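Re: the request from the purification team.
They wanted to know what the chain is likely to look like in 3D before they choose a buffer screen. I agreed to run a prediction and write the result into the notebook, where they can find it.
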Amino acid sequence: MAACHVVQQTHPYLNGHYIALVGNPNVGKSVLFHRLTGQYVMVSNYPGTTVEVSQGRLRKMEGVTLIDTPGVVSFPSRSEDEQVTERVLFNNDLRTVIQVGDAKNLRRTLHLTIQLAEMGLPLVLALNMMDEARMRGLEIRTEVMERAFGIPIIQTVATRGNGIEEVERAIQSARPVTLKIQYPPDIEQALQAIEQMAFESPISIRSLSLLWLVQDPVCEIWVEENTANSIREKMIEIRSGLMEKYPEGVDLVIQKSREDFIAHLVQESLQETKSSTSSRIHLSHLTIHPVWGVPILLMVLYAMYWFVGVFGAGTLVGLLEERLFGEIINPWLIGLSEKFIPWEMVRNFLVGEYGFWTMGMTYALALLLPIVLTFFIAFGILEDSGYLPRVAVLSNRLFSAIGLNGQAVLPMVLGLGCVTMATMTTRILNRPRDRILVTLLLALAVPCSAQLGVVMGMLAAISFSATLIWGGVIFLVLMLVGWLASKVLPGERTPLIVELPPLRMPVFTNVIFKTLARLEWYIKEAVPLFLLGTVILFVLDTLHLLPALIETLKPIVTGWLGLPPEAASALMMGFLRRDFAATGFFVMQSQGHLSDLQALVSITTITLFIPCIASVFMMIKERGWKIGLGMVAFILPFSVLVGGFLMRLLSGLGWGS
C-alpha cells in the first residue's frame, strides 16, 4: 500500500454557503439531491441532462445551497461536463463536498475519493446503491475506509431514503481533511517545490500541484489567471523536467501510486459472498446482446408507442382537445367574448381561427400536454430502470454511419413525441458538432407524434407498398443528409463511452418527480414558443398576408409537386405545424381530391418540411440564429425538391396508376 497520512486542518470555506454534490455518472446524484432538497433535478448522462449546474436549498440547513454537478470520472477533466464540475470545486465558496459513490464499483469510486480528499475540502462520502451491492454478494467495511481517508462514509440507498438522515448529520459535522499519498521521490520533490511558492489556492496547494503536473485544463486556466508570471514559469519548468523523466506520462505514474493505495484498501474493506442476482444480471446482458437485445428494444419501443401514441396522442388528446376544449371550454369562451367584447379584432385575437386561446393554448394544453406527459412518464420509467444507456449501446453501430454515436438515439426517439423538446435535449450530447447534426436531422426527418398519427392514417388508406416507400425515402434522406453533414461539419465522431447502471425496478416517486420537473420545463420553455407562433400567424392573417403567401406557393405545388392548387393552403399551414399540413392533406384525400400518388408525394414532402414554428424558435434559441435559420433555408427547398423527384420517379415507374 502506498504510504499516506491524513491531516486535520482548519479551512476558510467551512462557513461557506454552498455544498457540492459530486460523483461518477449514474450513481444516484439526482436522487440524493431530491432527498436532501425536496426538489428534483435532471442531471445525468441522458434526457433532461445538461452541463449546467443546478442548485437547491437544503431542507435542514437554512441558507445553504446544494449544487448538483454533472457526472465526473476523475481528474484531469477531459470533457466539458467534467470541467464544469471542477470549476465548481475551484470557484465556489464551498462548505462541504458530498461525493456520491457506487458501492458496486468500489475501486472506481475510490479513485475519485482520493482526488477529492487530497483537495483539502470538507468531504462526506455517500456510498450509494448498497442494496444492489449486497444482492451481488458484496459487504463493505466502511469503518476501515473511514480510518484511511479520515472522512465520514455513509451507506445509502437513495431511492428508498436509507441513510439520508446520516448524510445530513455528517454534512453539519464535516471537517476539512487532506489525504497525502506518498508518490515517487521525483514527484514528491516537485510537489514540495511548488508548495514552497507563496500563493493562495481554492484547494490544497498539494492537490493543485498534482493537477498542474498532469496538465489539467481547469487548473492551468486558474494558474494563468491567479499567479504571478515568475511563479508560473517555475511551475512550467518543474513540470517539463518531470515530463522528460517520465515519457510514458506523469499521470500514469501518479495513477499507479493511487491504484496501489486502493488495491490494499479494497482488500481490507471488501468481502465477497454468494451473489443472489443471477437472473437480473442475465437479463441485463440480454438487453445489450447484438441479437437478443434488438427484439427486446423493439418490444420496449412498441410499448412506448402504444402508451404515448395510442393512449396519449389518441385517447387523452381525444378527451381533452375534442370533448373538453372543443365541446365545452372553447364554445363557452367564444360565447363570452361575443357577449362582452365588442371589438372584433380583440375577439379574433383571443378566440378566432388563430386565437391566443383557441389555437395557442388549446394546442399547448389539449393536444401537446397529454403527449408530452405520457412521454415523460414512459421516459422516466426507462431512465429509472437503467435501460436507457442500453438503448444507446444497441444503436451505436447505426448512428456511427452518420458520424454520431448511440447517445444520439435519445433525442431522436424524443422527437417522435415533440421535436421542440427533443431539440432542447440535444444538450446531452457532448460536442457542439453532434448537437448541430442531431438538430438538423430532427428538423428534417423526424415527425412528431401528432403528425405521425395523421401520416399513418393516410398511408393506411393507400397501400402497404406506400408505407414502405414513404419509410424508405425518409430513412434514406436521414442517412444521406446525416452522412454528408458529418463530412462537412468539422470534428471527428466521438466513441460511445457510457456507464451501464444495473437494471432495477423503477421507483414510483422518482418517476413522478422527474415527470413533474420536465413538465415544469415544458410549461416554461415550450408553451411560450407555441403562443408566440400563434401571435405571428394572427398578425399575418390580420394583415391579409397569409392569402398572398398561399398564392405564391401554387406554382410550386402544381407545377413541381403535381398536386391540386388547393394543396397550397395545406402546405402553407405547414409553416405553423407540419401536422396542420398533414391534416389538410388528409381531408383532401378523404374527399377524393388526391390520387394515391399525390397523397404519397404530399405526405413525404410534409414529413421532410420544416417543423412547427415553436421548433424553429427552439432551434434558433439552442443553435443560434445563423445556424437555425440556415437549417430552415436548407430544409424548405430540399423537402420540395425530394417531393418533386419522387413524383417523377413513381410516375415514370407507373406506380399508383
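For the purification team: The radius of gyration is 29 Å.
Please add any questions underneath this entry.
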